[in-house]
Amino acid sequence: MRRSRPKFTRARSWVILISLLVLALGLGNLGRAGVALRYDAHLPDLPMMVSLEYLAAMGAFWGVMLTACAAGLMRFCPWGRWFTLTAVSLYQAHVWINHLLFDASDHARQTRPWDALVTMLVLALIWGSLSLRSVRKTFERE
Description:
By secondary structure, the protein is mainly alpha-helical. The chain is about 80% helix and about 0% strand.
């Protein structure tokens, strides 16, 4: 007997949209890791506040984590929702720790209000969408 596919509802479409956003964050971080490794190979003596190895490792770590979150969301796995909420929140906290510790230029400091707005919008979108009752029900196992 074939299992019937669940109906494609508005809640499921929200989950797909959020998973695409999380996937974009993950792929962006994987790209950042690749660029850091390339710079490290071609510009080994480049003076920086943090090492390029650190940037590559953090890009790879968050890239893998956020891509796994997106996969869990797209497959409507029960762990996908909580894993995504936790990972995106920790990712944003890590971004701000890096801003506060390692921003060296005046321009970086001047863009902090914009960065804060983007952070709040991302967190509000992720938490708001994944906390809707209809969205939470899509992750329940029957």
